[in-house]
Design a protein that fits this description.
- This protein folds into three domains: 59 residues, Nucleic acid-binding proteins (OB fold (Dihydrolipoamide Acetyltransferase, E2P)), CATH 2.40.50; 154 residues, 3-Layer(aba) Sandwich (Rossmann fold), CATH 3.40.50.300; 56 residues, Probable gtpase engc, domain 3 (Ribonucleotide Reductase Protein R1, domain 1), CATH 1.10.40.
- It is of the alpha/beta class.
- It contains eight helices and 15 strands.
- Bound molecules: guanosine-5'-triphosphate, magnesium ion (MG) and zinc ion.
Length: 292
């Protein structure tokens, strides 16, 4: 069999990538070729065609055009592509340890909304949190229409519900460091930390590279903790479209360029005042609006 074979990128290193061929279960290490002078870096989720040489060496021939890719800002402000062909953001938020950062969650949800991809809300560590607080948070996002579930990946609790929710999806786990993304990834069957040593030493297994796990249909990508998941520079008018419950109220503002922060006659502020918009969601909106 010498023809090109199709596969999915699982993870990438400097000159090589782990590829899971469509008709195999174990990933293979494949070499990346130089393409027009510079190396083209595939990312997890990329569809590639590889050739297997006589000595079983595997070489990536070409990378299919991406339907979608996700970028994040590096510390020095550059954009780095972290995953390709994703259609669902599986946002992960710990109910405790670390305490939920709702602005991160709301930013991820706004990002998905603005990019027109699906999002779901996964809440972890229910065992460390007050049940009433868990119910309140789950209720808020369920009412907004997001598929919301809580699970304890460490104990294996509710993991099957998530597996079912991910069926047929090309999903990316995202959320702050330490919330349990890799625990979820492993609970579903993904390989843990092959050939990877944590920057923080033994005991703290922070993920440094994204990796993919093929589901019976679809895939799931584990990614490093996302702190800056670029909404980039956007206007309040654009940002408010990322908060689905604010769209209608925003259409009633007196000023068409309303920032929904201080203006009189603001439909959004009125909806916060009478409880149609949750305080925490508006707090997230304000902090994102002031940051961009
Ligand atoms: N008690 C409890 N601990 C959990 C739960 N889920 C994950 N943990 C623990 O939380 C810690 C962090 O989990 P990880 O899965 O490494 O978190 P992560 O989101 O992958 O973190 P980064 O790779 O740094 O982004 C680990 O010690 C897990 O065992 C849970 O539901 N309950
Ligand atoms: Mg991790
Ligand atoms: Zn307004």
């Amino acid at each position: 069999m010498n023809g090109p074979r199709r596969g999915l990128v699982v993870s990438t290193g400097k000159n090589a990538a782990w590829i899971c061929l469509d008709d195999e279960t174990q990933p293979r290490l494949a070499q990346l070729r130089r393409q027009t002078g510079k190396r083209f870096m595939p990312v997890p989720g990329d569809v590639v065609y590889v050739r297997i040489l006589e000595d079983e060496k595997t070489v990536v021939d070409r990378v299919e055009p991406r339907t979608f890719h996700l970028e994040r800002r590096t510390i020095d402000g550059r954009a780095k592509t972290i995953a390709a062909n994703v259609d669902t953001l599986a946002t992960v938020t710990a109910l405790a340890d670390p305490a939920p950062r709702l602005v991160t969650l709301d930013q991820l949800l706004a990002f998905a909304e603005l990019e027109s991809i699906d999002a779901m809300v996964v809440l972890t560590k229910p065992d460390l949190s007050d049940p009433a607080a868990t119910r309140d948070l789950a209720g808020l996002y369920t009412r907004l229409g997001y598929r919301t579930l809580f699970l304890n990946p460490k104990a294996g609790e509710n993991v099957e519900a998530l597996r079912e929710a991910l069926q047929g999806r090309h999903a990316l786990l995202c959320g702050n460091s330490g919330v349990g993304k890799s625990s979820i990834f492993r609970a579903l069957g993904g390989e843990g930390h092959v050939g990877e040593v944590s920057r923080h030493g033994i005991g703290r297994q922070t993920t440094t590279v994204a990796r993919l796990y093929r589901l019976p249909s679809g895939f799931l990508i584990d990614s490093p903790g996302v702190n800056e998941f670029g909404l980039g520079r956007i206007t309040p008018g654009e940002l408010v479209q990322g908060f689905r419950e604010m769209r209608e109220p925003a259409a009633t503002c007196r000023f068409t360029d309303c920032t929904h922060l201080v203006e009189p006659g603001c439909g959004v502020q009125a909806a916060v005042a009478d409880g149609r918009i949750a305080e925490s969601r508006y707090t997230s909106y304000k902090s994102l609006a002031q940051a961009s």
